[in-house]
Amino acid sequence: MTDVEREAIVNDESEPNRFSDNASKSLVCQLHSGFSERFLRWRRRYLPVGGGTRRGHGSVKLSGPLVSGAAYCVSSCSMIIMNKIVLSSYNFNAGVSLMLYQNLISCLVVAILKLSGVVSVERFNWKLIRVWMPVNVIFVGMLISGMYSLKYINVAMVTILKNATNIITAIGELYMFRKRQNNKVWAAMFMMIISAISGGITDLTFNAVGYTWQTANCVLTASYSLTLRRVMEKAKQSTKSGSLNEVSMVLLNNLLSLPFGIILIILLGEWRYVISTDVTQDAMFWVAATASGFLGLAISFTSMWFLHQTGPTTYSLVGSLNKVPISLSGLVLFDVPLSLPNLFSILFGLFAGVVFARAKMS
């Protein structure tokens, strides 16, 4: 309370018929001032004004990274496991068709969100499409190879073999962007190589076709990230606004993948299999396939959300730690035959992934 306010209070309370001396005036002034200050403190603490708002913002700031990180981990784990269920448990032999269905769901959901005003999407043009086409070709190959690798390899080994993507990406960065890695990073990558080789040797469910698909997936995944980094600025210059947000990239990738998927389904003859197979008559199969489509889109949004809430270093570390529950849940849910050497290789590979993320942060 300011001095001016206190003088106003004294003047208001100094009517002759109410107070007869200066002592009474002083006493009333002190009581009024103390009460007012206590009331203001109470209001700031319990009412949604000033302090209450700050306290609310603090809790949101604290919970944001935790909630977004948890959402990213749950969606990532669920997506891999759901794809494994659709391809292996239902014995569905049409990975391209599943990719096409998932991408169609992603396009529909983003379109609905755009029409609802929830997200904003950049207007596409032919110049942008031509620039983005190489990225999309690699994107389609990455998705398809990932589908077929999950068909033949258990979830734990897939997550460990994916470490090879980090090695290929680091080599690509060295030659394409002249980005050198420190010794800790190279040491972690050497550990990844050892874990991948030992894991393959000790894998009781080893499948040469599956490992070939996974090798192709690692190469394509690394190529996707490297090509995307190179094309990004050129793609932004091809838009009217000069920018291209993440939602637009998600929609562009999924939209352009639809004609590729249709062409591949026709060329590979998958459409005959999809029409004739009995699994498409199972309602639960469609529930699982639809859920995998929503989870694929959820990964895109939760990863962007988590990256915005934290940063690339935390995102990378959590991504490496996220392989632990994925691997363990895959071993338990699908009853994978396991030996002690293979389990050690898997755990060593998970540890190497964490060491790699920590090395990149330093």
Automatic annotation (TrEMBL):
Transmembrane portions of the chain: 99-119, 131-150, 184-202, 249-271, 283-307, 340-359
Domain spans labelled Sugar phosphate transporter: 72-347
Entry GO CC: membrane
Entry keyword set: Membrane, Transmembrane, Transmembrane helix, Transport
Subcellular location, record wording: Membrane
Membrane topology annotation: Multi-pass membrane protein
Domain of life: Eukaryota
Pfam families per UniProt: TPT (PF03151)
Database matches in InterPro entries: Sugar_P_trans_dom (IPR004853), TPT_transporter (IPR050186)
PANTHER family reported for this sequence: SOLUTE CARRIER FAMILY 35 (PTHR11132)
UniProt-recorded name of the protein: (rape) hypothetical protein
